[in-house]
Design a protein that fits this description.
Number of strands: 9
Protein name: Glycerophosphodiester phosphodiesterase
Structural class: alpha/beta
Order of helices and strands: EHEEHHHEHEHEHEHEHEH
Strand content: 5-15%
Number of domains: 1
Helix content: 10-25%
InterPro entries: GP_PDE_dom (IPR030395), PLC-like_Pdiesterase_TIM-brl (IPR017946)
GO molecular function: phosphoric diester hydrolase activity
Pfam family, one: GDPD
GO biological process, one term: lipid metabolic process
CATH class: Alpha Beta
Length: 357
């Protein structure tokens, strides 16, 4: 979900919440008022971030299979494009040594070998396919390895889902275009992303089950131009919704100062997807001094009044998941779909079905 290039962005004094208000900002007063009671039987979209990377190696087919078997509403994934335009399910523009290891060159004497450290955009699918991407990340101590894991192509995920009886009819896909707006030379163009992804979605007969998300807001109107029926999702945080941001595409920050929901509406997107916490990369945990939940009940009401859904990312602790559900959000993106299911069950909310072969 998070952009790889945002580490050094000046986070400055934006004071950003989902609608620019400081109301209910502590993360402890987010429950709806008596005038805004939530339907206890409403559907909450459980989105498995990168296949549930808290449990298995991220964006592996094994991780997505595990999510299907746990029971989620939506499979969340990223797409990067290779030099020969293969749509790979992967998050990073560069092949990172902490996730992948080289095995052998795609052909003898390949001058681009080794591939670790290279841009995916400059490698072919055959070159990327040689990588063993089985490394677990210390940040996710429960993450299990997937021996011999290869970066998969988008059609492989659709085929995986179809191998589970009933799953293809039930599951949705939230597909992110991994466009590097601040470094456009590191990725394909927005139009290439949109054309290739939507073509594969159409081939899989998954058009009515797909939404397209991006931090790069320039890509979302291109989706609508190609197929107005596909929901689009505007991702943002306090480092992208800023003055002079290159991530906002056709939107001018100055027209919507401190009001990202109005900006999302003006963009023509259907879903606002902010970081659930400010700043997005804080080390503070839910309930601790200084913790600030970015999406409150007031924000959710405003989004709904604008005709938007609101689905924050990426919430992993059960108390934070519970508090965020209580604000009335339409869904949550999480690295731990098992934890979110537990919270939903404790609250008596309907659970998405699990599927097995």
């Amino acid at each position: 979900m998070r952009r790889i290039a945002a580490v050094a962005v000046a986070v400055a004094a934006v004071g950003l919440t989902a609608c620019g208000s400081d109301k209910e900002s502590s993360g402890t007063s987010t429950a709806p008022s008596s005038a805004q009671r939530l339907d206890p039987h409403r559907m909450v979209d459980l989105q498995s971030h990168r296949g549930g990377r808290g449990l298995l190696v991220e964006e592996s087919l094994a991780a997505y299979a595990h999510s299907i078997e746990i029971g989620v509403s939506t499979l969340e994934l990223d797409i990067v494009l290779t030099a020969d335009k293969a749509p790979l399910i992967w998050h990073d523009p560069v092949i990172q040594a902490e996730k992948c290891a080289d095995t052998a060159p795609a052909f003898p004497g390949d001058p681009k070998f080794p591939y670790v450290g290279k841009l995916v955009h400059e490698l072919t699918y055959d070159q990327v396919r040689t990588l063993d991407c089985n490394k677990t990340l210390p940040k996710f101590p429960e993450q299990q390895p997937v021996p011999g894991n290869k970066i998969a192509k988008l059609p492989e995920l659709f085929d995986l889902v179809k191998s589970y009886p009933g799953a293809f009819e039930a599951l949705r896909y939230n597909i992110e275009t991994k466009i590097e707006a601040e470094h456009p030379e590191q990725s394909a163009t927005p139009q290439e992303f949109v054309d290739i992804i939507l073509d594969e979605v159409n081939k899989a007969a998954a058009t009515d089950k797909t939404e397209i998300q991006s931090f790069d807001w320039s890509s979302l109107p291109l989706v609508k131009a190609k197929n107005p029926a596909i929901p689009t999702v505007a991702l943002y945080d306090n480092s992208t919704f800023t003055p002079h941001s290159r991530w906002l595409g056709p939107i001018h920050y100055e027209d919507h100062k401190a009001d990202p929901l109005a900006a999302v509406k003006a963009l023509g997107a259907d879903i606002a997807s902010p970081s659930y916490v400010e700043p997005w990369d804080t080390d503070n945990t839910f309930g601790s001094p200084g913790f600030k939940m970015a999406v409150t009940t007031t924000d959710v009401q405003k989004a709904h009044n604008l005709g938007l859904k609101i689905i924050p990312w990426s919430i992993n602790d059960k108390p934070a998941i519970a508090a965020q559900i209580d604000t009335g959000v339409d869904g949550i993106i999480t690295d731990y779909p098992n934890r979110m299911r537990e919270v939903m069950q404790e609250k008596g909310l309907p659970l998405p079905p699990a599927f097995h072969k």
